[in-house]
Specification:
Strand content: under 5%
Shape: elongated
Structural class: mainly alpha
Pfam family, one: DUF3689
Organism: Galeopterus variegatus (Malayan flying lemur)
Keywords: Receptor
Strand order of the largest sheet: 1-2
Distance between the termini: 68 Å
Helix content: 55-70%
Protein name: Short transient receptor potential channel 4-associated protein isoform X1
Radius of gyration: 33 Å
Length: about 800
């Protein structure tokens, strides 16, 4: 056995202890004080001075101390590892030592992950903690990075098997010992180097899982353009590796979330955008561009997303991967669940075979279908997430074009019934610590990710018509022809070779499952958002009628009124969808009046609207805009609806409009404006713009003033509204803001929006349409610098 090298200058040799060790023992002649050595090692780890590694102790001392503290011989093994891992070593002995260390940590990590946390050893300190404290983590990083060192022009090499052992030990230590992952994340050169280890299939899974954990805690996002030969690396991945690599990409292409709610306010977002403009593209944007520059990258993702289960990896390679997962703790729970399903189906098949007198094959040679399906689901949800993020990025149009070209939508349509929205079997997979309805389960996560992708794909983009099949596109054309209106240009321009095939398109399939969804289902929110995104943009009568004919309006009203939905998120998504479905559509209002056919039902509907205007204001805006348009039309059908519809009659009353206006302004302030509630400000502006058209703006402002006084808060509301409008100008008149959303949602030109805001902010107190004319001098507070509050 090689002698352990003494620390330089320590005087430790021939059994004599170093000064640091003497201190740890509490001086000559005394018994070791428990924890002193560990405390000093911990201090050394934090400061970089003093005791930091096992090599600073003699083997004799460590062996004696281990008898008392029960460290499982880990410090002594690290001492040997130092001695056998020098630059000129052949690493054979080094690898043998790693094989001894690995099981000491892996069982501990397994217990930790499965929440048993009952370590077999009777010790205060886990093995992983001891391993790290005596310098094991830093030593393994050095060993792994030996290939980056050249000796006489030749690069050092270590075997894949040894790299695999190092990665496994590092990961187990990260799992059990707090702070290790963060320390590794600070070693940027090491993180970049890890990507190069993914070139080998033998070390790919271990490397990918460790990278994912490290990037999850890294303060600054890594830049993929710094990874050597990124394009070659990704291009050489097989489909299985690419799917797993998407777990890493999910961290590198999503904008980092600070977790601070204040950062989600529009004030903070605007400030961040100004800062970003001076700094240039963010790391996430740079990473997205780097990926999109890789030839065939998006095409391969589309193939993975639309691959059928029968086309996936063969049984042998899948079982091999599952066995690797078993030793790789991040996936151990998933494996346990998969194997439970496999055993259940295997037992069932075995029983059936015995009854029929047929021989049965083992699970290892005949992989159960449920395992194949779950394997594919776990891949697809990662791939769909990456595609979804790319769809929302700066290169959205480029990604849209490629996704359409590579037939992602028709491919997903073909998988809808058998995989995406498949019926659960009796032994549906449930992860450890979760239940079948938990949002963390792969089945549910895939559905949500699928719906988010549809939402991003349809939102304000003409490619949304790819969600239909040829027959459904013809139906849209027929609706326009019957109504004697021009056919939607985007429908005419849709490439029929790229649309869905089969009896139903993806949108129709979504409507079918949406109507069958249980009242308490968490999918309702995402389903409504996905369908609403199809209607967003310039209002299309044909699109609305397509959905109305399929009973969507009645379904929404049932959920709002008859099921008396309590979820605020679901209610908001349903109100938004209902607004887009009914806007300017006389037939929709007739259907509404037919369903809400009693005062009792109408009162329940109003109660839901008034319970939270943040949730329902988009519907209020759409009904208000529709009322204004209908009142200016000369048509018997429209006149009939105006005279019969309870909702239109309710909104037409000035006291109703003033009540909405007062509350919309009162529930928001500049400091609390977010992307979610800024719609309240825009809805209040819509009400006032329509009043201005009718030359009633001074009347509405005067009524607001009276309402202020009746509430005993003179000036409070109008000062707040003045500040909100000043912010509106800063926010919407910025050169990078897209005003078409406001125009499309209201059919009011953006110039009219700007003019109305300017009129309201006119400083002339003699102007009858200026807010300041209705704020009494003692209560005036309009010059506050809200950006500094």
């Amino acid at each position: 056995m090689a002698a352990a090298p003494a620390a330089a200058g320590s005087g430790a040799g021939r059994g004599r202890l170093s000064a640091a060790t003497v201190t740890a023992w509490g001086g000559w002649g005394g018994r070791p004080r428990p924890g002193n050595i560990l405390l000093q090692l911990r201090q050394g780890q934090l400061t970089g001075r003093g005791l930091v590694r096992a090599v600073q102790f003699t083997e004799t001392f460590l062996t004696e101390r281990d008898k008392q503290s029960k460290w499982s011989g880990i410090p002594q093994l690290l001492l040997k590892l130092y001695a056998t891992s020098h630059l000129h070593s052949d690493f054979v002995e080094c690898q043998n030592i790693l094989k001894e260390i690995s099981p000491l940590l892996s069982m501990e990590a397994m217990a930790f992950v499965t929440e048993e946390r009952k370590f077999t050893q009777e010790t205060t300190y886990p093995n992983t903690y001891i391993f790290d404290l005596f310098g094991g983590v830093d030593l393994l990083v050095e060993i792994l990075m030996r290939p980056t060192i050249s000796i006489r022009g030749q690069k050092l090499k270590i075997s894949d098997e040894m790299s695999k052992d190092c990665l496994s030990i590092l990961y187990n230590t990260c799992v059990c010992t707090e702070g290790v992952t963060k320390r590794l994340a600070e070693k940027n050169d090491f993180v970049i180097f890890l990507f190069t280890l993914m070139t080998s299939k033998k070390t790919f899974l271990q490397t990918a899982t460790l990278i994912e954990d490290i990037l999850g805690v890294k303060k600054e996002m890594i830049r993929l353009d710094e990874v050597p030969n990124l394009s070659s690396l990704v291009s050489n991945f097989d489909q299985q590796q690419l799917a797993n690599f998407c777990r890493i990409l999910a961290v590198t292409i999503s904008e980092m979330d600070t977790g601070n709610d204040d950062k989600h306010t529009l004030l903070a977002k605007n400030a961040q955008q100004k800062k970003s403009l001076s700094l240039g593209p963010s790391a996430a944007e740079i990473n997205q561009a780097a990926l999109l520059s890789i030839p065939g990258f998006v095409e391969r993702l589309c193939k993975l997303a639309t691959r059928k289960v029968s086309e996936s990896t063969g049984t042998a390679s899948f079982l091999q991967e599952l066995e690797e997962w078993y030793t790789w703790l991040d996936n151990a729970l998933v494996l346990d669940a998969l194997m439970r399903v496999a055993n259940e189906e295997s037992e069932h098949n075995q029983g059936a075979s015995e009854e029929n007198g047929l021989p049965h094959t083992s699970t290892r040679t005949q992989l159960p279908q449920s395992m194949k399906i779950m394997h594919e689901i776990m891949y697809k949800l990662e791939v769909l997430y990456v595609l979804c993020v790319l769809l929302m990025g700066r290169q959205r149009n480029q990604v849209h074009r490629m996704i359409a070209e590579f037939k992602l939508i028709p491919g997903l349509n073909n998988l809808f019934d058998k995989l995406i929205w498949r019926k659960h079997s009796a032994s549906a997979l449930v992860l450890h610590g979760h239940n079948q309805n938990c949002d963390c389960s792969p089945d549910i996560t895939l559905k949500i990710q699928f719906l988010r992708l549809l939402q991003s794909f349809s939102d304000h983009h003409e490619n949304k018509y790819l969600l239909l099949n040829n027959q459904e596109l013809n139906e849209l054309s027929a609706i326009s022809l019957k109504a004697n209106i021009p056919e939607v240009e985007a429908v005419l321009n849709t490439d029929r070779s790229l649309v869905c095939d089969g009896k139903r398109g993806l949108l129709t399939r979504l409507l079918q499952v949406m109507k069958k969804e249980p009242a308490e289902s968490s999918f309702r929110f995402w389903q409504a958002r996905a369908v609403e995104s199809f209607l967003r943009g310039t209002t299309s009568y044909a699109d609305q009628m397509f959905l109305l004919k399929r009973g969507l309006l009645e379904h929404i009203l049932y959920c709002i009124v008859d099921s008396e939905c309590k979820s605020r998120d679901v209610l908001q998504s349903y109100f938004d969808l209902l607004g887009e479905l009914m806007k300017f559509n006389v037939d929709a209002f007739k259907r509404f009046n037919k369903y809400i056919n009693t005062d009792a039902k109408f009162q329940v509907f109003l109660k839901q609207i008034n319970s939270s205007l943040v949730d329902s204001n988009m519907l209020v805006r759409c009904v208000t805009l529709s009322l204004d348009r209908f009142e200016n039309q000369v048509d018997m059908k429209v006149a009939e609806v105006l005279s019969e519809c309870r909702l239109l009659a309710y909104i037409s009353q000035v006291p109703t409009q003033m009540s909405f206006l007062f509350r919309l302004i009162n529930i928001i302030h500049v400091q609390t404006l977010t992307q979610e509630n800024v719609s309240c400000l825009n809805t209040s502006l819509v009400i006032l713009m329509l009043a201005r058209r009718k030359e009633r703006l001074p009347l509405y402002l005067r009524l607001l003033q009276r309402m202020e006084h009746s509430k005993k808060y003179p000036g409070f509301l109008l000062n707040n509204f003045h500040n909100l409008l000043r912010f509106w100008q800063q926010h919407y008149l910025h050169k990078d803001k897209d005003s078409t959303c406001l125009e499309n949602s209201s059919c009011i030109s953006f110039s009219y929006w700007k003019e109305t805001v300017s009129i309201l902010l006119n400083p002339d107190r003699q102007s009858p349409s200026a807010l300041v004319s209705y704020i009494e001098e003692p209560y005036m507070d309009i010059d506050r610098d809200f950006t500094e509050e």
